Amino acid sequence: MKSNSADFLKYKGVLDTVVESMPHSYTVTLGVWIKCGGFSEEGFNCGIAHFTEHMLFKGTQNRSAKDISREMDIIGAGLNAYTSEEYTCFYVKIIKQDMEKAFSLLFDILQNPLFNENDIEQEKRVVIEEINTSEDDPEDIVQDTMLKKLYGSHPAGNPILGKREDVERITRDELISFYNKFYTHSNMIVSVAGDTDIGEVVKLLDSNITNVRTGAPLVVLPEVKRISNEFIHIKRNTSQMQLSFGYLSYNRNDSRIYSLLLLANIVGNSGSSRLFSVLRDEYGLVYNVEATVHEYPFSGVFAVSTGFSAENYTKIIELCRNELCDIMNNGVSNEELDRAKKFFEISYIFDKEGTYSAMERNAKKIFLSREKFDEDYVLQRIKDTTPEEIRQCAADTFSTGEVQAVCGKINKNALIHICGI
């Protein structure tokens, strides 16, 4: 696969840095990844990783929140951030001549937060509104409920945003403690892609990092316990029912993860996938259906989600289970697998275009595993997957405990169709 080469170095022996030079690009994307997220919250209130991300935009020792916003607008920067289970990413996309300003702004935010008491209380209200928005979305509701039931008390079952009561309990002292523990240079990755080179990036790091902070706390996660079948109904007055059902499966370091990714494509990620063909094309019961894989170091999750009219619930479940059982028992044809492989390859290549994608890909090579994010390696593993490996993957996955979450109105007679294949 055609790819630009990237330069890796450990800045001052501490800070992982990667730069991919793309000289024909008009833009540069700078990303700083902190190795902490929802899984790093043991001993803290749930949601503090996400709340810390919010608070870093509320002002520094050198800039007010308004200054930060104005500087972003002046350079036309798309400065943003997000928090996942395992990391927090701050990133900015700019044109070449604004690199110096972007580095100054982003590293000031990361290194010099104020954590003003009044700002903390105000931002709590903002995050609670974000939680309210998520809890009004049936798709979010069923996915969060399904994952919570699958993982139980494991950190993977906690919502990234936290709960209202968790957010309300966060104090300034707790924020500072969390920040000091995780926001060290040795716990960060700097990834840059675009019209630049490693020499220019090092000079900008020299200008913006004066006090290197070390310390990279080890986050130890417990084992995941297998569960029995579970059914959860969340009552909402919605025009549609929303369904999400999932199973624990291979972790991301398992060589069989590529079979699981292809299985998702076969089940529900394209117009020719099993569930799309049956539920939409043959029966006209849904607008869309998706199969997704959540990859974690301790386990994976295979999940299916769709929305439909309540009176079709029983038929939807029956058709879904028929298809999953057929793959478990009879496998897939070479033609079906070849389509899934081609769909994966094209989607994978498309996702790698642009400076943001290059920045993200290279950071993950460091954070997760260089081998697992090497394009040629991934595509070769996909190419080598056999129909029998897909059948065995389905058998391993769909024979574990199933969690089914539905949101909306449901006929009482339909409740007897609880989860289980």
Question: Overview of this structure, please?
Answer:
With 421 residues, the chain is an alpha+beta fold. The protein is built from 15 helices and 11 strands. Strands 1-2-6-3-5-4 form a 6-stranded mixed β-sheet, sandwiched between helices. A 5-stranded mixed β-sheet has the order 7-11-8-10-9, sandwiched between helices. β4 and β5 (88-95) form a beta hairpin. α10 packs antiparallel against α11 (313-330). The longest helix is centred in the N-terminal third of the chain and has 19 residues, at 117-135. The two termini are 40 Å apart. The mean pLDDT is 91.
Q: What's the arrangement of secondary structure elements?
A:
Blueprint: E1 6-11, E2 15-21, E3 27-34, H1 48-55, H2 65-74, E4 80-83, E5 88-95, H3 99-111, H4 117-135, H5 138-151, H6 164-169, H7 172-182, E6 188-194, H8 198-208, E7 230-234, E8 241-249, H9 257-268, H10 274-282, E9 289-295, E10 300-308, H11 313-330, H12 334-350, H13 354-367, H14 375-384, H15 387-398, E11 402-407
Parallel strand pairs: 2-6, 7-11
Antiparallel strand pairs: 1-2, 3-5, 3-6, 4-5, 8-10, 8-11, 9-10
Helix pairs in contact: 3-8, 9-12, 9-15, 10-11, 11-15
